[in-house]
Design goal:
By secondary structure, the chain is of the alpha+beta class. It is built from 16 helices and 21 strands. Keywords: Transferase.
Length: 547
């Protein structure tokens, strides 16, 4: 009898409240029971989780297999036990407090079979505030590039793996660590995989945040315990890559998430000797693997932490870690078109360069179009617009009509509207609203706006910085239905004015001859043509009589 196509391995520890949802999601898989097996390893649960597993095994003989063992302190041992007895062509690791989309296994296996994939990543969805990787799930990829497609940003084992590759490499999860055990396992598979594929068009894996619950895969761990594991994985990366951008892309993930993130408020409040121990453990990793390419791609908080580690500035790093990012990035300095965060030790003689504090590249023109209509000759618009980080208070917002052919521009100041509830992130923007009424009969420097298609943008100036962005891509759903036609008088005739969106969602205004004007011109042409013909005939008659 042929073995199952896929083995689903579940490490279970004190997951009683959520275990049925997890198991039901697996047993409801569209791939069918005849093509899968479920291996659930109870890692010494103290609740009724073990009994629930036995119940499911009894109800689904030949499909659900249960192993009970003493608590091992982490997910490595139960996963390894599952691997030892797995029979599937593929294995999939599922956490006991998470669950699968109904077609997850079928879609991932189909992707693997079609492309001879060794690893298939299924789209992840966060539940209950759980953060999940997203960058690699933009489109389906038959053959993903480890360096270019963000695949390495997810090192969890919640993926479909070809079991033959795991066995050929002799891979198992390290059982001497309590957390981070998945990174060396997944990284080794990545580096040895012939093909890595991505299923992005279907939510395969639902990763949950369960308030107050600590599963076999989620437990707090001291940074000192994690640093050796991080060092091991970074050495692994170096062993499989050459110096340069590709290596830096992978190292960036570890430097940000496993090294620099440790130097937070919690670390800053530890006793001095404990802070110093973590500092000394992290510094060699920065010294070995941090590059200028990586530094340029870090945000200011991370740039500062990396600089302090590299240059042995422990007291300065402590001060910076004690300063909440939202406070530092709200208290900015703008100078000569550059923006600097107000973290401690900015230009205080400590020697930390300005570049470490710089926020300029984070300043973006943000907008939202709430309404865009034409009533008669008047174009009405309202919404909000601001520069992220520095806001718009004391600045200037203008609507810009631009003819892309002639590059002619006409600018119109807006009326500011209060937006007390506008706080999309750590910054508030209480005066970012705008409304404007543009009379198209005088919009062309006192004359009717010339015929043609005009791009509509918003230009935002604040504290010496100016950015311009097209209006339209970010808009209220009902705005599209608000697009209307109007008329602009041009002497005795009228032009039509029409709002529309291009293929990218950008708003544009078209001024053209109205149907009435075109009809009047046709009538006039016929009239004068008739006059000319009549005059021509009259002239011919006169010549005949005179002859």
């Amino acid at each position: 009898m042929a073995g199952p196509l896929v083995s689903v391995i579940i490490a279970v520890y004190n997951a009683e409240p959520f275990l049925r949802e997890c198991l039901d999601s697996v047993l409801a898989q569209s791939i069918g029971h005849d093509r899968m097996e479920v291996i659930a390893v109870d890692d010494g649960s103290r609740d009724a989780g073990g009994a629930i597993l036995d119940e499911y095994a009894e109800r689904h003989p030949g499909v659900v297999r249960v192993v009970h063992q003493e608590n091992s302190g982490g997910p490595s041992r139960p996963r390894n036990v599952g691997l030892d007895i797995a029979r599937g062509t593929y294995v999939f690791f599922l956490d006991a407090d998470d669950y699968l989309g109904t077609e997850a296994l079928e879609r991932m296996v189909a992707m693997a079979e079609r492309n001879d994939s060794d690893v298939v990543l299924g789209k992840m969805v966060g539940v209950g505030g759980r953060s999940v990787p997203k960058s690699m799930f933009t489109v389906n990829r038959d053959r993903a590039d480890l360096f270019k497609h963000g695949v390495y940003n997810t090192l969890s084992p919640t993926k479909l793996f070809r079991r033959e590759l795991i066995e050929r490499l002799g891979l198992r999860f390290p059982e001497n660590v309590r957390s981070g055990e998945d990174q060396p396992f997944t990284a080794r598979v990545y580096f040895n995989a012939k093909v890595i594929s991505v299923v992005a068009d279907y939510p395969c894996y639902y990763a949950t945040h369960r308030e107050g619950h600590v599963s076999a895969t989620q437990s707090p761990i001291h940074p000192l315990e994690r640093m050796p594991q991080t060092a091991e994985v970074m050495e692994l990366v170096a062993g499989h890559t050459d110096p340069g951008e590709n290596r830096d892309r992978l190292m960036l993930r570890h430097i940000r998430l496993e090294v620099l993130s440790r130097f937070n408020l919690r670390w800053a409040e530890w006793p001095p000797e404990e802070r110093e121990a973590v500092f000394n453990a992290a510094k060699p990793l920065i010294d070995a693997w941090h590059t200028d390419w990586i530094q340029e791609r870090l945000g200011p908080w991370d740039r500062l932490r990396a600089y302090c580690l590299r240059h042995g500035l422990l007291p300065e790093l402590t001060d910076i870690a004690l300063c909440p990012a939202y406070e530092a990035e709200a208290d900015v300095t703008v100078e000569d078109g550059r923006v600097f965060a107000g973290y401690p030790h900015f230009r205080d003689g400590s020697g930390i360069p300005d570049e470490c504090f710089e926020l300029t590249h984070q300043v973006k023109a943000r907008h939202w179009l709430e309404e865009a209509t034409i009533d008669g000759p008047v174009l009405y618009m309202r919404g909000h617009a601001y520069l992220s980080v520095i806001g718009v208070d004391g600045g200037e917002v203008e609507i810009v009509l631009r003819d892309p052919k002639s590059e002619t521009e006409h600018r119109f100041p807006v009326v500011t509207v209060d937006t007390p509830d506008l706080k999309p992130s750590r910054h508030a923007y209480p005066h970012a609203g705008f409304r404007v009424a543009i009379d198209l009969a005088t919009a062309g420097a006192g004359r009717p706006l010339p015929r043609g298609t005009w791009n509509i943008s918003v230009s935002i100036e604040s504290r010496g910085l100016r950015k311009t962005v097209r209006l339209g891509p970010k808009r209220a759903p009902e705005t599209a239905s608000n697009v209307t036609r109007g008329q602009v008088r041009r002497g005795f005739l009228r032009d039509s004015a029409h709002l529309s969106y291009d293929g990218k969602g950008n708003l544009r205004l078209t001024i053209a001859q109205s149907a009435t004007t075109q009809k009047a011109k046709r009538v006039a042409r016929r009239y004068f043509s008739g006059i000319r013909r009549l005059m021509a005939r009259s002239g011919s008659t006169v010549r005949q009589r005179s002859s």
